[in-house]
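The instructor's notes for this session suggest beginning with a concrete chain rather than abstract definitions. Hand out the sequence below and ask the class to guess, before any prediction is shown, which regions might be ordered.
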Amino acid sequence: MDPASPVSNLTSAFKTLYSFLSHLPHIPPSVLSFPTPNGGWPNIPVQTLVEDKCKTREVIELLRHLPYLSRRDDDGGGWMLGPDTVSMDFSAGELWPEWIEEVQEVPAWCVWVARREGRGGGWILADARSGTLTQYTPLEDHLTIPYAQYETLAPQDRWMAHPTMDAMAFVQLWIKRFEKLVWMPVPITVGNRGEKAKVAWYFTAETREEEEDLLAEDEEFEDDGEEDEEAEDYTEEGGQEEEGAEVAEDELDGLWKDAYGEVEGRQRRDELERQEREMSEEKPADSFRGTPSGGDRNLLGRSTWDAKTKEVYDIYTLSGWPSSFDRAKCETMLQELVGRGH
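After discussion, reveal the predicted structure:
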């Protein structure tokens, strides 16, 4: 297989994703399996794919060479790749059920590689000609075009209005959500005998904007008091600015006026001052404004977490996530959390 081909790009992306996910507490490393380097998975039903599913040679090549997470022993289902998004395993020759094809009509060179399970999840569609992945979800706010425009598209083209990225870029973004602890999986069991393994998800961002802010933040921060001693602040005249120097009130008024006009500038400044007063007055004891135990300064000031989310976050960071992660320690602590009435 050509290493520069779209199919190779897709297989490499899923190898990266699955290898990463197999280090998390909810997916055992033993379920990750790879095809033989040359022929790939021998049981992929080529005739069925061509005659019944009308798939192209590229799709067959992709399914033959993808890594897979083996189906679960308890119910034959998949593993959670992200919130309410489940893996699909074709390595034994069993393809997707017919009802999946009713979700959305797609071209012959595209194939579903992960499915939605739950309201918050999405389907992942692989394009074997372009080497891209599309996250397909029925939720309107995930569309890349206005909904009115979406409704004018032909049904078979509507998948193209959903977020699509190069496969490796898609996977790196997915991984970053875990690395930054935007997504935090907690494995649990359901039923008296624990026969069905499930996953509860905790989130440190409540909105898409908050998630984007978290993902955009720098990886490394200097500790307080350890800034470069040679760094100095200077005024426009070139001299060193005196400690505690402030901009004069009339100068601030002038800046607001120049930017927004006299009336709107005053209104904006008054509103900013009001917000600053409220922030200084409202400091609840458990607002979680300090550094969470584990020491990730990326999450300073996030005061909306509930106690359980904070505890899950602490478990991951205390277990060394992500650079020196102790999976066994994390699993034990999460099990204790679940046992206390998750």
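Then share the key points. The CA atoms of residues 98 and 328 lie 39 Å apart. Residues 262-281 form the longest helix (20 residues).
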